[in-house]
Design brief:
The chain has 165 residues and is mainly α. It has five helices and two strands. Bound molecules: zinc ion. The site of zinc ion has 6 residues, from helix 1 and helix 3.
C-alpha cells in the first residue's frame, strides 16, 4: 500500500469503516511511515475537534496519545480476530478428527445380537449411520430383539402360532 492510498483511507479509518482486509495493510504502512502518521494525526485532530465542538465536549489535551491508543486498539482487534479464526479452524479440525473414527465405526455396522440364555443360534443385523448407542432405530431393534428372535425360532420350528404353542 502506498502513501497516496493511505491518505485516501484516513477518513474511512477514523470513521471506523475500514474493512479488516484493508486494515492490516493500512496499519502496517501507518506504523512505518512518518509522513503518513503525521497526515493521519492532522486528520484525527481535526475530525476529533469538530466532533467535540458539535457535542459540546471539552477539547482533548493530547490528540496524539489518543490516536496511538486507537491505532493500538485496531491492531489488537485484528490480532484477536486472527486468533479466533485459528481457534475456530482448530476446533473444526478436531471435530473432524473425532468424527472420522465414529463414522468409520458405524459404517462397518454389523452388530451381533444373541438369543435368550440357553440357545445356540444368533442373529446378525447390519445398519448404517449413527453410533449404535445413539441410533434410535438400533435401540428399538435391541428392545425388540429377544421377542423377534423367539418368534423367528418358533416359525422355523414348524409354524407355531402367536400364542406360543
Ligand atoms: Zn506513507
Amino acid at each position: 500500500m502506498d502513501c497516496r492510498t493511505v491518505l485516501k483511507l484516513n477518513e474511512q479509518y477514523l470513521a471506523g469503516e475500514l474493512p479488516d482486509s484493508v486494515l492490516a495493510e493500512y496499519l502496517d504502512h501507518i506504523e512505518n511511515c512518518e509522513s503518513c502518521m503525521d497526515n493521519l494525526m492532522t486528520d484525527y485532530s481535526i475530525t476529533k475537534a469538530i466532533y467535540q465542538i458539535n457535542h459540546n465536549q471539552d477539547f482533548s489535551t493530547d490528540y496524539s496519545k489518543e490516536l496511538y491508543l486507537q491505532l493500538a486498539r485496531s491492531r489488537q482487534s485484528l490480532v484477536r480476530k486472527k486468533r479466533n479464526a485459528r481457534y475456530r479452524l482448530a476446533i473444526a479440525l478436531g471435530l473432524m478428527a473425532l468424527s472420522i473414527p465414529l463414522m468409520a465405526g458405524s459404517t462397518y455396522g454389523k452388530a451381533k445380537y444373541y438369543l435368550p440364555e440357553g440357545s445356540k443360534e444368533s442373529l446378525r443385523l447390519s445398519y448404517y449411520g449413527l453410533v449404535d448407542e445413539e441410533d434410535p432405530v438400533m435401540q428399538t431393534i435391541r428392545e425388540l430383539n429377544d421377542e423377534a428372535v423367539i418368534k423367528l425360532r418358533q416359525l422355523s420350528q414348524g409354524g407355531v402360532t402367536d400364542d406360543g404353542r
